[in-house]
Design brief:
By secondary structure, the protein is mainly β. The protein has one helix at about 195-200; strands at about 5-10, 30, 35-40, 45-55, 60, 65-70, 80-90, 95-100, 105-110, 120, 130-140, 140-145, 155, 165-170, 170-175, 180-185, 230-235, 235-240. The chain has a single domain (about 5-205), classed as Jelly Rolls (Sandwich). About 35% of the residues are buried.
């Protein structure tokens, strides 16, 4: 299995203007709701301010993962400002939201079928740096949130999501000064620990199609040690020659 399996949508956000295309090939184009500011991103360009929605809809399954790179300079003069990836149902209620706001804390929540809003919140992250947020809902266990490939945080939740597999729209919002969002992904499954580590890629990130560079010498290069590569023995030793809490009405 690869990171392309179960990929519902991926937005690189590398376009300088207009629509932001869905690299997954599933046609979930992000359409700007107004003026949008573009800036330098983690993996190319990023959205520095503006909001987008997806005109068409997609299923929210039982068990999913959201991934996004975010940055907040911590200088927003509006306490409720936030970078957010959200999925909204009918009436504007959020089915799930992954946000990073004024408090420099990441928040992930879903709407429970019992009208509860369980959420998991990170510790405060470093201002003015890019951070990888990966959040997932695992039915029967709860909500998980991982920042920068650290140990995931868990809020137990054994209920059902409000959607019951409804088809609903999604969107991205950046509404604060000094904030940015880059490389947004949505999977219809829970990623494994190895897959999340691959996304982190030692802090360098990994954008669609999620393939690592080929090692020097090519994929077929031999790893056998030739005499020139052998370590040298000296004596009897070998020596060798690299967020403020979100409310239901935030949106």
């Amino acid at each position: 299995m690869t990171l392309l399996d179960g990929l519902v949508a991926h937005w690189k956000l590398d376009e300088e203007s207009g629509d932001r295309l869905d690299s997954s090939g599933n046609g979930h184009t992000l359409t700007p709701d107004g003026d949008v500011t573009t800036g330098a991103g983690k993996l190319g360009l990023a959205v520095a301010q503006g909001s987008f929605t997806v005109p068409n809809t997609f299923d929210v399954p039982d068990g999913f993962t959201v991934g996004v790179w975010v940055k907040d300079a911590g200088i927003s003069d509006y306490p409720g400002s936030t970078v957010a990836v959200y999925i909204s149902g009918e009436g504007g209620d959020d089915v799930c939201s992954l946000s990073f706001g004024h408090s420099l804390r990441a928040h992930f929540d879903i709407a429970g079928a019992d009208l509860s809003y369980p959420e998991v919140v990170s510790e405060a992250l470093t201002a003015d740096e890019w951070h990888l947020l990966v959040a997932w809902w695992e039915p029967g266990a709860g909500l998980y949130l991982q920042t920068d490939n650290a140990e995931p945080m868990l809020t137990a939740f054994t209920g059902e999501n409000v959607t019951n597999d409804q088809e609903i729209p999604a969107g991205v919002i950046v509404d604060g000064t000094g904030q940015a969002v880059d490389s947004v992904s949505f999977w219809s499954r829970v990623l494994t620990s190895d897959e999340r580590t691959r996304l982190w890629n030692n802090g360098d990130g990994l954008d669609y199609p999620f393939t690592l560079p080929v090692p020097k010498g090519g994929a077929g290069s031999s790893m056998l040690m030739t005499p020139a590569r052998l370590p040298r023995m000296t004596g009897n030793r070998w020596t060798a020659r690299h967020v403020g809490p979100r409310t239901r009405n935030s949106f």
